Amino acid sequence: MEVRATAKYIRTSPRKLRPIVDVVRGKKVDEALTILRFLPSPSARTVAKVVKSAAANAENNLEMTPSELRIVRIFVDEGRSLKRHRAGPRGRTKPILKRSSHITVVVKEGE
Known about the structure:
The protein is of the alpha+beta class.
C-alpha cells in the first residue's frame, strides 16, 4: 500500500527543487535521507522533511516498518506565484515572480 505526504507552498522555485528530487527518486528512505543530508543545497532540507513525514505516516497510520520503505514517486509541482513589480528603465515597471512549489512524496513497503 502506498502512503503519501505533501508540502505545499514551499517558497522555492520548482526549477531549483527538481534536480534534488531526481537524486532520491527510487531509493530507500534511509538512503535518501542520508543523501539529502549531505547535498549542498538548502532546499534539500525541505525535501528531507517531506520524506520523513511520508515515512512517519506509513509507520504510524499503517504500521509499516520504516527500514523497508522505498520512495516510489516523488515530484515537484508549481504552486502559486507572488507577483511583484520593480522600477525599470524609462519609467516602466518590470515584473518579478516569486515562485512557490508543492512537493509530493509517495512511499511503499518492499520491492
